[in-house]
Write a structure and sequence with these properties.
Layout: E1 3-7, H1 11-23, E2 27-31, H2 34-43, E3 48-51, H3 60-67, E4 75-79, H4 84-92, E5 97-100, H5 105-119, E6 127-129, E7 132-135, E8 140-143, E9 146-148, H6 152-163, H7 171-178, H8 189-201, E10 206-209, E11 213-216
Parallel strand pairs: 1-2, 1-3, 3-4, 4-5
Antiparallel strand pairs: 6-7, 7-8, 8-9, 10-11
Helix pairs in contact: 2-3, 6-8
């Protein structure tokens, strides 16, 4: 069972993460301060750290830099700070992932499992839906064992759908996956990307839920 340390001072958020990730099969501990996190990581083995940026005693960025002086444990920033400069800083000081709140908890668990596998030298698992296979490591997509060329945003959109297969994603949630905070997005950009995915991968994969968003169907509909 992978062990996770949540470093989050907002009790409601920490509680939500703790119960959700325990339900996904993780062993979870939580602390509210950066100094508590550093002490915990020196004392016991931890497989992965979820780190907020805005902590009371020091910033998450400073905590990550201090952590990197003695540990290579994977670090995911989970924060409301969506500015692109913060993403860049977080990754450059040694974080392995940077996720902006709010986030789908099933997708979060999938990202965490991928980080744990990578840290242990295991390949990232391919994602499969119907006859489509997405390989995150090689960034390739195959349909019925035929390679399909996708743009970077089409690939990112398909990966977001596959990580949340069976759940409805709103256009706003999909825009957060594809575009940086503050970046101008055409009103029909998501619809255009989905149209292109349907054209390349077939019409049975991504369904429109009118008035709500879109969902990816893992299994093909019955004939």
């Amino acid at each position: 069972m992978p062990s996770i340390l949540i470093v989050e001072d907002e009790i409601a958020i920490a509680d939500t993460l703790l119960f959700a990730l325990q339900g996904e099969g993780f062993g979870v501990q939580r602390v509210a301060l950066a100094q508590e996190a550093l002490a915990t990581l020196r004392a016991i083995p931890i497989d992965l750290v979820i780190l907020d940026v805005g902590l009371p005693d020091m910033s998450g960025f400073e905590c990550c830099k201090a952590l990197r002086r003695f540990s290579a444990v994977p670090v995911m920033f989970l924060t409301a700070r969506a500015e692109e400069v913060d993403r860049v800083v977080g990754l450059e000081i040694g974080a392995d992932d940077y996720v902006v709140k709010p986030v789908d908890l099933h997708e979060l668990a999938a990202r965490l499992r991928a980080l744990v596998r990578r840290a242990h030298g295991q390949p990232q698992e391919c994602l499969t839906a119907q006859d489509v296979v997405l390989d995150p490591a090689s960034r390739t997509v195959r349909k019925a064992d035929v390679a399909i060329a996708l743009s970077n945003r089409e690939f990112a959109l398909l990966q977001a759908f596959m990580l949340s297969a069976g759940r409805v994603l709103s256009r706003e949630q999909l825009e957060q996956q594809l575009y940086s905070w503050g970046q101008e997005v055409d009103s029909n950009a998501i619809e255009v990307h989905i149209h292109n995915l349907r054209r390349k991968l077939g019409n049975t994969l991504i369904h429109t839920v009118r008035g709500v968003g879109y969902t990816l169907m893992r299994d093909a509909p019955a004939p």
